């Protein structure tokens, strides 16, 4: 992750330049190199660690959705929270997200779980931790990624206006607790996981609330309908 090794979209590269110079990022890089040298398989692939930032430049962010860790199964993660690569079975939390989207907006569930079209419209699909070891959920928590993604959220909070922060579950709500609710809209509910979706996620209408807010401040709404062919 040293300068020149990781290619990062220019607006984020400029905004986060100071983070890459911090000792914790050097420690994180050493950790990842050591894990790979030990023969461990890391997801997503290196070129997709910062995929969420690459697809959603800082000046184009309209919405932030926070996740926790990448999926740890083979072929799933590609750098966007809740999203999986084409051809991969839609994960249970995303099934519930689609269920709520249908109830909220009347959009039938997509037959895939690939969310890049949201990212390309300004939805920053950011995990708190950007890597994981195959088959080992949360294996890379506490290694430095959280500090980096805190800086990403703080940058959006400080440098943008009228952003919708969609915070599903207590982890996301704690992570983004500092967001200025005078300048941004913060939508909170239970997590879409099957374990908690019935405790307030289903029926929360985050998609229509997001678009109503964006339109009220003169921004284009998000087209939440996913393309069928990916």
From TrEMBL:
<protein>
    <recommendedName>
        <fullName>Uracil-DNA glycosylase</fullName>
        <ecNumber>3.2.2.27</ecNumber>
    </recommendedName>
</protein>
<keyword id="KW-0378">Hydrolase</keyword>
<dbReference type="GO" id="GO:0005737">
    <property type="term" value="C:cytoplasm"/>
</dbReference>
<dbReference type="GO" id="GO:0004844">
    <property type="term" value="F:uracil DNA N-glycosylase activity"/>
</dbReference>
<keyword id="KW-0963">Cytoplasm</keyword>
<dbReference type="InterPro" id="IPR005122">
    <property type="entry name" value="Uracil-DNA_glycosylase-like"/>
</dbReference>
<keyword id="KW-0234">DNA repair</keyword>
<keyword id="KW-0227">DNA damage</keyword>
<keyword id="KW-0326">Glycosidase</keyword>
<dbReference type="InterPro" id="IPR018085">
    <property type="entry name" value="Ura-DNA_Glyclase_AS"/>
</dbReference>
<feature type="domain" description="Uracil-DNA glycosylase-like">
    <location>
        <begin position="54"/>
        <end position="214"/>
    </location>
</feature>
<comment type="function">
    <text>Excises uracil residues from the DNA which can arise as a result of misincorporation of dUMP residues by DNA polymerase or due to deamination of cytosine.</text>
</comment>
<dbReference type="Pfam" id="PF03167">
    <property type="entry name" value="UDG"/>
</dbReference>
<dbReference type="GO" id="GO:0097510">
    <property type="term" value="P:base-excision repair, AP site formation via deaminated base removal"/>
</dbReference>
<comment type="similarity">
    <text>Belongs to the uracil-DNA glycosylase (UDG) superfamily. UNG family.</text>
</comment>
<feature type="active site" description="Proton acceptor">
    <location>
        <position position="69"/>
    </location>
</feature>
<dbReference type="InterPro" id="IPR036895">
    <property type="entry name" value="Uracil-DNA_glycosylase-like_sf"/>
</dbReference>
<dbReference type="InterPro" id="IPR002043">
    <property type="entry name" value="UDG_fam1"/>
</dbReference>
């Amino acid at each position: 992750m040293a300068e020149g090794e990781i290619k990062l979209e220019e607006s984020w590269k400029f905004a986060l330049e100071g983070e890459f110079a911090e000792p914790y990022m050097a420690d994180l890089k050493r950790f990842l190199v050591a894990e790979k040298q030990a023969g461990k398989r890391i997801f997503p692939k290196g070129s997709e660690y910062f995929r969420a930032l690459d697809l959603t430049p800082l000046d184009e962010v309209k919405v932030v959705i926070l996740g926790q860790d990448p999926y740890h199964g083979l072929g799933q993660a590609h750098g966007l929270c809740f999203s999986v690569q084409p051809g991969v079975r839609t994960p249970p939390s995303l099934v519930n997200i689609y269920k709520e989207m249908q109830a909220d907006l009347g959009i039938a569930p997509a037959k895939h779980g690939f969310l890049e079209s949201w990212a390309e419209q300004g939805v920053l699909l950011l995990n708190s931790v950007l890597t994981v070891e195959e088959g080992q959920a949360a294996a890379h928590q506490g290694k430095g990624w959280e500090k980096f993604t805190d800086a990403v959220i703080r940058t959006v909070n400080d440098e943008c206006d009228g952003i919708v922060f969609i915070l599903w579950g207590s982890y996301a709500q704690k992570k983004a607790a500092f967001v200025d609710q005078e300048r941004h809209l913060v939508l909170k509910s239970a997590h879409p996981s099957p374990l908690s979706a019935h405790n307030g996620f289903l029926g929360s209408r985050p998609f229509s609330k997001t678009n109503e807010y964006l339109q009220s401040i003169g921004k284009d709404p998000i087209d939440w309908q996913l393309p069928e062919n990916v």
